[in-house]
Sequence to fold (174 residues):
Amino acid sequence: MIETLYEWLTGKFENKIQAFSNPSKYAMIRVTHTPIWGDWFYGEQAYTYQLTKPYRQFVLHPVQNGENFVITNYEIVNKEQFVGSKNLDKLTKDMIKLKDGCDVKLTFNGSSFTGGLSGCDCYVKWNERDTYLQNEIELTSNQYCVKDLGFCQTNHHQIWGSKHGRFEFKRMPV
Fold:
């Protein structure tokens, strides 16, 4: 089952249909997951008009834990050299740092991996503000749906993320 998760996670995804249908509610974004180090992934998130300036670069390590799956998230030191999935042969494990509290937990129901991240422990700096992330994920063979929400650490009000529902990314052709 973990091989299916690896296969479905690999590739480029964009929400072009959703963004064109609702341009005032959804920016057009591309998400990329590139395999590195066997079962690890390098990833990027970028607005499609700024693919050379991703707003997020990261490393993921999915593992199976019984019937469940956990995706561990890492930050990258000196990430600029890897933009566009370039120079990934130079990316080493000593260049990444675990994002404590940011493990995503998924289950498989036969047709999709679903789950996410809850709680208040995944800290994200957003516009110089301290926030925490919560999200919901659904991954199928051709679609990656994500709802990321950022909340203020002090008053717990949402301050970033979609107010209109999840982003619906479709797998791009290879």
User: Anything to note?
Assistant: The radius of gyration is 16 Å. The CA atoms of residues 20 and 28 lie 8 Å apart. The mean pLDDT is 94.
